[in-house]
Each structure stands twice: as structure tokens, then as C-alpha cells.
Amino acid sequence: MSTSQRLELARNIHDGIAQDLVALGYELDLLLAATESQEPARKGIRSLRFQVDELIAKVRREMYQLRQVQVESVQESLTKVASQICGPLLNRLDIAEFDIPPAVGLEISSMAAELLRNSVRHSRGSQIELLLSQVENHTYLEVRDNGEGGATLESSRLGLIGIKERTELLGGVFTYHSDSSGTRVAITL
């Protein structure tokens, strides 16, 4: 996609979807301010308002990414992030070149960074691996370490749980295995 096409798409998103979401947020604020609303309804409206705010933030990120003069690929971004987070612990970086939709790319980058940070902070391992490939038109991300293992969804303090939930919201599959030989997390989108 050319720069002019990206800029036009960013403008169209701003003038359309983004403005509609902001207007929806204002309508929810008005409903919340209504004194006759019952508490269960207010809680539901508040929850919807937070969801709308999250959507607005996502749309804005997409617009800003589209407006970047030089758009960095997910692969380039992951290479930099992995090196910055892992430093000398990064033992293997196997990143295939293929097209990834921008919205999926943002999610992959965020989840990979979280997994890499977890490996550095918690694994007590000496090697971390990051793999990104395309398998049967799906994006496959895997992060492995040779640490002491023991990571569980119950003990993750929202890290693994959040990544699992994010993966499922995107219609993907999340798997992990953690034992004394290390931890392996795989995501297929």
C-alpha cells in the first residue's frame, strides 16, 4: 500500500469509525448521568463505556500506524524488541517474512514482548528463543526459554492469562508447557 493510500485510509478511519465510536462514548456518558438508571444498568453501561474506550484506543493506534512515513514490519519490530528485552539471553531468533495484517501485527508484537519480558524476569534461564512463521495461512508465534519452569495460568498474575484471553478474542489458539526444562508458549492466529 502506498503512502498516499495509507494516509487516505487513516483519514477515512478518523472521519468515520473513530468519530462514530467517540459519539457512542458520549451517548453512554449521557445514559450514565441519567439519575433514573438502576445500579445494574449503570454497571452495564459503565462496562460498555470501557469497551468503547478500548476500541477507540485500538482505532487510534491503527490510524497512527497508517500515518507513519516508514511503516516498520512486524518482523522488523519483533527483531528490535527481542534484542532490547532479552539482550545476551536471546539464543535463537527465527522470524519468517510474510504479510501480517496491521491489527494482528500489533497484537503479536504486544504478546511477544510480554512473553519475552516474562522469560527474562521469571525463568532464571540462560537462553530465550523467539519464532514467528506462517503455517497454513495462520500466524504462529512461539517463545521458549530453558529456565526452571513452573509457570501456570493460575500463578501468572495476569501475564499468561491476559495473553491467552487476547489470543482467544482474536479467534486463535494458545498453548503452553512449563516444566523443569523450561517454558514454551505457542500462539496460532
Name the CATH superfamily assignment of the largest domain.
Histidine kinase-like ATPase, C-terminal domain
Oligomeric state of the chains present here: single chain
CATH class of the largest domain: Alpha Beta
Shape: flat
What is the succession of H and E elements? HHHEHEEHEE
Number-wise, the strands total 5
Calculate Rg over CA atoms: 20 Å
Number of helices: 5
- Based on secondary structure, the structural category is alpha+beta
CATH architecture of the largest domain: 2-Layer Sandwich
| Low-confidence spans | none
CATH topology of the largest domain: Heat Shock Protein 90
Walkthrough of the structure:
By secondary structure, the chain is of the alpha+beta class. It has helices at residues 3-33, 39-67, 74-86, 102-122, 159-169; strands at residues 90-95, 128-135, 138-145, 173-179, 182-188. The chain folds into two domains: 3-67; 74-188, 2-Layer Sandwich (Heat Shock Protein 90). It is built from five helices and five strands, in the order H-H-H-E-H-E-E-H-E-E. Strands 1-2-3-5-4 form a five-stranded mixed beta sheet, with helices on one face. A hairpin with a 2-residue loop joins strand 4 and strand 5 (182-188). The mean pLDDT is 88.
